[in-house]
Amino acid sequence: MSNKKKKKLTPTQQKYQRFAKDREPKRPVLSNVIRAFIAGGIICTIGQGLQWMFMTYFNFTEVTAGNPTVAVLIIISVLLTGFGVYDHIAQWGGAGTAVPVTGFANTVASASIEHRTEGYVLGVGGNMFKLAGPVITYGVFSAFVVAIVKIAIKALGGM
Q1: Can you list the pairs that 101-106 forms with residues at least 24 positions away whose Cβ atoms lie under 8 Å?
Q2: What's the DSSP call for residue 10?
Q3: Res 159 pLDDT > 60
Q4: Of 4, 40, 45, 127, which has the highest C-beta tally within 10 A?
């Protein structure tokens, strides 16, 4: 709570705030970080294995193997979300499962599953991108800004 809000509290409310803070359980930050690192690392290792498989058995190049690898990771994530397994993995792994593309696929799929009773258009279609929409918007806008900066640097360097 900010100091400005604390000043507006009565002495009894301030005492209660201190009382509640003293009894609040401590968060296991180190173990959360380690679990996130392990979960994200396993997801990335699976992705690297898939990329290697596409390069070895299907004669993809390192560049062209990226797209099918991401597609397979998304499909696996959506299937695990549909079966209710991804939620358990995400509960254990925390941010390690939210950062890769699998976390994005889980977000879209879980919103779709949750709102399917409202119909396909208004339920699934209308709610699918409520959480994922800002992520897409930010990604597109960031790519636009980076492209403008790159073009500006090239133009200034070429003079």
Answers
A1: 101/70, 101/73, 101/74, 101/77, 102/43, 102/73, 102/74, 102/76, 102/77, 103/77, 104/132, 104/135, 105/73, 105/74, 105/77, 105/78, 105/81, 106/77, 106/78, 106/80, 106/81
A2: -
A3: no
A4: 40
